[in-house]
Each structure stands twice: as C-alpha cells, then as structure tokens.
C-alpha cells in the first residue's frame, strides 16, 4: 500500500502548493546550464485558487499534506497543464506519472479532446517524461497559436527558446 494518495485539489490546498513547486524546482540545480531556474519560480497561491476553481487540478497527499500537484486550465476543448510538481522527498515513486494519468482520465471524462503543455525538450523529467506517457511535440505551431504565444512569452521571460517545446496528448 502506498503512503500517498491523489484527489481533486481544493482551495485550502493552494497555500501549500508554491512551496512544493519551489522544492521540486531545486532539481534544476543538477543541470549546470539550467541551474538559474532552480527553485526560483512558483505559481502563486492566489493563482492556484483560481485554477482549482475550474475543477481540474489534482493534488497528491501524504498524511493529508500536499506533496505534489498538477495545475491545469481549460482552453476551449483542450486542458492545458501549467505545472506538474512533486516534492523532492517524494520523487521517484510514480507520483508525477499517476497525477498525469489521473489528469488524462479527468480530462477525457470532462469532454476535453487533448492535454497541452510547454516544457524543456531535453530535461529528463520534462520532454522525455511526457513523451513516455503519450505526449507528442507540436511542430506545426502556426496551427496552435495559443501554444506558440505561450512559448514566445516564456522566451520573453528569459527561458531558452531553443530548449522549450509545446506538447500535446490527444485523448481518445
């Protein structure tokens, strides 16, 4: 039996989620060329509350405390994944993959046709992870202006544009 569980996120979870994201982000310190991104950004609790109100965010809990989450937002018939984070003390237990599988089920049951996200192409727990669970790189960004705009905004905010990609997972 596992020592963690997942459920839909509740507004009361929002205050704990930025700390989970900041802790998870410290893993970037292991990548010299991306160390500047190590634990220096998190979605605010206020924004989490707004996303949670949309009804599709999930949280992983251990002893009733948030240890991981997936933050999403509907965009017409697509559900966009803004962030998936698991606290370092709980990584390598399948929590992130379980959160994403649950997110896919929830999205499919809610009538979304796809999940979308932006991520680092070559960071093992980013692009390759999402590829393993069925996401594909969006190469025709002109057909996905929302994702193209997100990548452009990330580049404007200092993210290395050549390492960032948009991905999509169609839900059958």
TrEMBL record:
Q: Which domain of life is it from?
A: Bacteria
Segments forming domain N-acetyltransferase: 4-156
Q: Which UniProt keywords apply?
A: Acyltransferase, Transferase
Q: Which organism is it from?
A: Parerythrobacter jejuensis
Output the SUPFAM superfamilies linked to this UniProt entry: Acyl-CoA N-acyltransferases (Nat)
Phylogenetic placement of the source organism:
Bacteria, Pseudomonadati, Pseudomonadota, Alphaproteobacteria, Sphingomonadales
Spell out the molecular function terms from Gene Ontology. acyltransferase activity, transferring groups other than amino-acyl groups
Q: Which PROSITE patterns match?
A: GNAT
Alphabetized InterPro entries for the sequence: Acyl_CoA_acyltransferase, GNAT_dom
Q: What is this protein called?
A: GNAT family N-acetyltransferase
Gene3D superfamilies under this entry?
3.40.630.30
